[in-house]
Amino acid sequence: GNSVTQMEGPVTLSEEAFLTINCTYTATGYPSLFWYVQYPGEGLQLLLKATKADDKGSNKGFEATYRKETTSFHLEKGSVQVSDSAVYFCALPIYGGSQGNLIFGKGTKLSVKP
Amino acid sequence: AAGVIQSPRHLIKEKRETATLKCYPIPRHDTVYWYQQGPGQDPQFLISFYEKMQSDKGSIPDRFSAQQFSDYHSELNMSSLELGDSALYFCASSPSPTGGFEQFFGPGTRLTVL
Question: Across-strand partners of A91?
Fold first, then answer.
């Protein structure tokens, strides 16, 4: 099955700092890739996704580009806000493709200080 | 927009007791997934259903069982509870296991086993 390795935190940044959370994957074929966010005390929300190589997913100022050559899907944001404090999970379908059960990275906890 | 509903949101049980968690998918979603997230851990896939039939099985203990009913809601039954079962249990739904549709997660049920 596929696997995902994610930079572990915690990560602490000041407001307006640049954010990068690294995610690399091992997969057969070219599965869809996802970033999920979990705010304190809440469930998982899809933050962004990319379905094929060189696709860029973006949402709420966050971006991630599907890099086939480096098997990576790093999450970036140019200027973080306090409200971005959450745990971020990189994920992909465990069997590949674009659907089915997801396998998650270990999660990266982001804390943004004012 | 309607979201995935899970009940109860919090549940406290004693060791060796049983628990039933319920999940109500988004209307017209026929696929349900269950995940378990231990403290500080990433979500782990347990089991999934498509059109009321089990579609895949992950790391679900034999003490657990689940089913999907005719109205597409799903229940996760947990027996002989152990301390290690304390976790956040997520249900997710999607319109179909194929076609690249994303999974929409519920808020989770926090199970505490004492």
Answer: A34, A104
